[in-house]
Amino acid sequence: MHKIWLICKREYLTRVMKKSFLVMTLLSPILIVLFYGLIFYFSFNKDIAEEHKTIWVNDSSEVFINKIENSKNLMFVYNTSTLEEAYQSLKNQDIYGILSIQKTQDKFSYNLLSYEQPGLSTLSNLESKLENVLKRKHLEANGIDTSIIQKLNAIQIKINTKKYSNETEESGDSGATTIVGFIGAFLIYFFIFLYGVQVMKGVIEEKTNRIVEVIISSVKPFQLMLGKITGIALVGFTQFSIWVLLVVSLSAPVSSLVMNLANIDPSSLAQGAANSGGAGAGILAGFTQINLPLILGMFLFYFIGGYLFYGALFAAVGSAVDNETDTQQFMLPITMPLIFSIAIAQSVINSPGSDLAFYLSIIPFSSPVIMMIRLPFGVPVSEILLSMAAMVAGFLFTTWLAARIYRIGILTFGKKPTYAELFKWLFRKN
Fold first, then answer.
1. Considering the domain boundaries, does residue 7 fall inside one?
2. Could you read off the pLDDT of 22-77 as tens digits, one per residue?
3. Are residues 206 and 279 in the same domain?
4. Maximum CA pair distance of the chain?
């Protein structure tokens, strides 16, 4: 145990003391917070990202004359000049484009001439404005008050969801549970890949430099593998903990700065969302109904358990090859369950209680991702305990499996093994 601790300590200190680790650990949260701050800022200041466009309308049908509504970014002018003058204005870039409307019998044709291909947002906005004009025309022709249609269009329905548990009703929100579940699953997916590959690269580096020949003279291969996996796991846990603290610390001042720059009153924003019954207010309220201590506890378990499960397999791959280019044939079977879990996440979100979701949350290859998706929706305690037991058993099995490959592969040079040879290594005696 003492030797495993020494190897673990060496792996931890070697990586933590690197300048690249310190820079990325401190820089990544800042970049993440600034990135989402910019998204938030531009979402409330769309005028900055969208230029003002003036469109000259040439309507031979005269149906749309002075009927198309202007907006902040789209303004319409009608027959204020000849068509030749409009083309000259377009050439001088005084206007964005010329919208020609013609009517043949009961059908309209629309053509927009501009010096650039209009963006989807501009085109969609323009089409919507033209459709509204025709809708109002038909309503008025049939003697229907347009204000009634506006009132009908303003009707919104918000269903408050509740979950029946232990003979009581618990409030919740599908949006909040989806967000929490997917974020937890994606973080585990990301960190398993990130630190699992570090284990593999570390093994390949020691094997290539022949350092391992010296180390093996003092410790057993299993001790070396377990110490390396544990050490890098502690590196990942340290980095993740720092990221969480920095993101939480930076979120409040950055949010305040963005709101000040965008001239947004937080109280009025929250009040407006609540009054409108918007999805944002429901999601924010839904977060308070989620059992966050359970989610965080399970996240730590599957974060560590999933890493240890896959880390042992990555270590086995690293010991079996001499360079990273040879790892591809062995990486695919290992990474496919993780990729499949993320790919099928939407189906699990839509049916978190289905048989497929249940079995995938029990199998150790997929349970770190799938169980994190299911947990916010509510999972029976028996299923959680079964999944955790399977995760521990899976880790013990993959550690044994990887150790059998590791003890021979770590001292094998110059030849890329096949799957048949790896299978033989499992049952080869010392």
1. no
2. 888 888 777 877 777 777 666 666 555 566 788 888 888 888 888 888 887 788 88
3. yes
4. 95
